[in-house]
């Protein structure tokens, strides 16, 4: 059985931080999990968890454009996913860009609505609808 050493800290705002250090390569993995997913949606009103997964990449109060651009310029890989139980955002970034990754995560966690407008919502709704068509409705 493999054992991975880690530390768990709970911040004063209730946020749990789980830390595992491995200095083998100069890369850090950041994962932010929200304990909300498709199981929290009402019958007949589904897709909101997936939609907001997309919207969360569209900017926030202090970074009012795509969260992909600055991290990809830094050499990061990033994405998100939605399951019935959770919505996850992850970045693998060079260690010298950890502050940027955490700052962007904190800003969208606290200030998403300051940057959200109808146009951004509509664009991402169309993207999610298209993903659904490609994944489910076009199956033979």
TrEMBL record:
Keyword Zinc in the entry? The reply is: yes
Q: Which residues form the Peptidase M16 N-terminal domain?
A: 17-135
Q: Where are the transmembrane segments?
A: none
User: InterPro entries in the record, alphabetically?
Assistant: Metalloenz_LuxS/M16 (IPR011249), Pept_M16_N (IPR011765), Peptidase_M16 (IPR050626)
Q: Name one GO biological process term.
A: proteolysis
**Keywords, in A-Z order:** Hydrolase, Metalloprotease, Protease, Zinc
Q: Does the keyword Ribosomal protein apply?
A: no
- Which Pfam families does this chain map to? Peptidase_M16
- Output the Gene Ontology terms for molecular function: metal ion binding; metallopeptidase activity
Q: Which family does it belong to?
A: Belongs to the peptidase M16 family.
What is the recorded name of this protein?
Peptidase M16 N-terminal domain-containing protein
Species: marine metagenome
């Amino acid at each position: 059985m493999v054992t991975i050493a880690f530390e768990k800290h709970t911040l004063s705002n209730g946020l749990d931080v789980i830390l595992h250090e491995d200095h083998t390569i100069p890369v850090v993995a950041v994962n932010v999990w929200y304990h909300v997913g498709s199981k929290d949606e009402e019958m007949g009103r589904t897709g909101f968890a997936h939609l907001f997964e997309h919207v969360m990449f569209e900017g926030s109060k202090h970074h009012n454009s795509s969260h992909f651009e600055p991290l990809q310029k830094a050499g990061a890989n990033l994405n998100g996913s939605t399951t019935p139980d959770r919505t996850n955002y992850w970045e693998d970034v060079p260690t010298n860009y950890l502050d940027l990754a955490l700052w962007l995560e904190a800003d969208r966690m606290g200030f998403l609505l300051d940057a959200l407008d109808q146009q951004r919502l509509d664009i991402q709704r169309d993207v999610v609808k298209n993903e659904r068509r490609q994944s489910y409705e076009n199956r033979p």
